[in-house]
Amino acid sequence: MAKKVILEAGRTFSEFSLLTDYTSKDCNLNSINLKTNLGDLKLGNPFLSAAMTSVTGYEMALALGKEGGLGVLPARLSIREQVEIINQIKGYEMGFVEDPVSVRDNATIDEAVRLVEKHGHSKIPVTDRNNVFLGLFNFDKYLESNETPAENIMTVITKEGELPVTNNENITVDEAKKELQKNNYLVVLDDLNRLVKIAFKKDVDNIVVGAAISTHKGWKKRVKECDKAGADIFVIDTSDAYNEFTAKVIKEYNAMNLGKPICAGNVITYEGAKFLMENGADVIKVGMSSGSICTTQREKATGRAPMTALLDVEKARTEYYKNTGKYVSIIIDGGVSDAGNMIIALSVADAVMMGGYFNHFFEAEGEKYDENMQLTTHEPDIKYIATWGEGSARARNLDRYGHVARKTFFAEGEEGTVQNWGRLKPKLKQDIRKIKAALSNTGCMNLKDYHKKAIIELMSPYTQNIVGDTHDMKVKE
Question: Which residue, 68, 328, 345, 77, is CA-closest to 209?
Fold first, then answer.
């Protein structure tokens, strides 16, 4: 008979609901931050793009990095390819936003909100008919006001005199960087106060990027080359990390004394997580067969419901911290597909890694297709984006899934397409606001508070239908 039979069903994120708590007046979208740490590495937002060849390359790593997240370059890439992308990321030079999207002073709030939703900008300049700068529409501040969408934009703007502004239209990038040490953005005007351009602090900050490695021959050379290029974290990327090979890599990596965190995964049990922590992992990655393209459960009956796995790993983390004083960060990898999933996952995890979610964006590496499934590079025509799992017949990432030779390989992932959601920034910004709104409902100013104070409740299937979705109506198409 099996060593142990667990009869309690595994749970996923959508089966839980977040309960509210007292919210102070200072706990709003403007004051809440989603900063997190992966070991000693600080992230502005708790998002990682998966180390999948259909998802993360230069464009994805750059776009996500500029929003405070982290792109993890797949181990399936050659060392040269990883190094070239890291060099590009680290060599990215701040530029001004020339001819920024703006609204006229006779516009309604609703018009400005539509621009926010389209472009993902949280701040929109307001000008008069002569392009004279009058102020800034801050979307998050508007959400805290009592103004209605039909009101004039001027009722909610922050006036020009209260903002970081310069009339030096010939300001250099280096001069702007100095100004941005004090403020998150800088509005550049000419001597007649007309809007010229804007600089943002997030374009000055160091963009972080991760490199995935395997447990197989050559991993040490990959680490050395990517470290020289400036990789900020290394991720041992294997489908099952509860093994002797992973422990050996962790120990040898730590002996290299690079001063950069090592993330190990994936695991789905208390014992697996404890094993990696005791062997020196700074970060643990959790998940198996819960990814949208993963078929490991179907092919070899191996995997676990993601929330159940996450809670089991959290038990190991709590015990390890109590015994050693070392806090090991946890990344949930797989099964997180929307803001609701993120909100529940982040009540336990320090960050979420997503493949399917990020695969939907223009910046993903997969080929782009029009509505007739013809390849296209013309952005307005893109309807679908190619996706494939690292264990699929296309990727054949043998190292990650422990297949020793091509003749023994069997697919543990699918290949297909997903709908194009457009550029990453607008959708990600919208989901960040949803997460912040959830934290506000619980009275939490940051993820550290959220981990301590969040109360989540398991719902019955019937409750999920009533609470989690619309009912007793025909939804307008």
Answer: 68
DSSP state of 408: G
Alpha-carbon distances of 259 from 41, 254, 262, 325, 467, rounded to whole Å? 10, 8, 9, 19, 47
Give the distance, in angstroms, between the CA of residue 17 and the centroid of all CA atoms in the same chain.
Answer: 22
350 in Cβ contact with 329 (< 8 Å): yes
Q: d(Cα 92, Cα 173) in Å, to the nearest integer?
A: 13
pLDDT of res. 290: 76
- The pLDDT assigned to 50 comes to 96
Burial of 449-476, coded b for 16+ CB within 10 Å and e otherwise, reads ebeeebebeebeeeeeeeeeeeeeeeee
Low-confidence ranges of the chain (pLDDT < 50): 403-405
**b/e per residue 357-375 (b: at least 16 CB within 10 A):** bbbbbbbbbbebbeeeeee
Look at residue 201 in the predicted model and tell me its pLDDT: 85
Both tokens assigned to 365: 């590496």
- Please, which residues have CB within 8 angstroms of residue 254's CB and are 6 or more apart in sequence? 262, 280
Per the rule left: phi > 0, alpha: psi between -120 and 50, beta: everything else, 426 is alpha
Report pLDDT digits (tens) over 161-209: 889 999 999 999 889 999 898 888 999 999 999 999 999 888 888 899 9
Alpha carbon 199 to chain centroid, angstroms: 23
How far is 50 from 360, CA to CA, in rounded Å?
A: 13
